[in-house]
Specification:
The protein has about 130 residues and is mainly alpha-helical. The chain has five helices and no strands. It has one domain (about 5-55, about 65-120). The longest helix is centred in the middle third of the chain and has 27 residues, at about 65-90.
Length: about 130
């Protein structure tokens, strides 16, 4: 097993820092709108997971279902980009402050990076 207890502790520490940054971006400036970033980053890996499950029902054909996988990657990319663009749009329109935007984007990227790292470290190995 390549990933152990130290990996789980490190990933949970980074995830806690990400959530702390997003919560502080809302609490310090008394505006709850930067919390929308958490929803986009938590939902972002779901299209990849769902489309990967739906794309290849047959284990014998490796090339089947590339369009579904590409669509899942497109939706994931859209959600990640929305997690970056939404605070920038809110800051540009004057709804939130610039430091809140920076904290929200950094916290959201830490959250998404932790989710992706966790799925990479603890992926099941297929044996044939």
């Amino acid at each position: 097993m390549a990933a152990g207890l130290k990996t789980i502790i490190a990933l949970s520490f980074v995830l806690a820092i990400g959530f702390l940054l997003v919560i502080l971006s809302s609490a310090l400036w008394h505006n709850f709108l930067p919390l929308l970033v958490v929803a986009t980053y938590v939902i972002a890996p779901l299209p990849n997971w769902i489309c990967a499950r739906c794309a290849n029902p047959d284990d014998f054909m490796e090339s089947a279902g590339n369009a579904v996988i590409d669509f899942g990657r497109f939706l994931t990319g859209f959600l990640v980009l929305m997690g970056i663009a939404l605070p920038a749009l809110l800051a540009h329109s004057g709804v939130i402050q610039i430091p809140a935007m920076v904290m929200s984007i950094l916290g959201g990227l830490l959250i998404y990076g932790t989710i992706i790292s966790f799925s990479m470290f603890f992926r099941e190995q297929e044996e044939f």
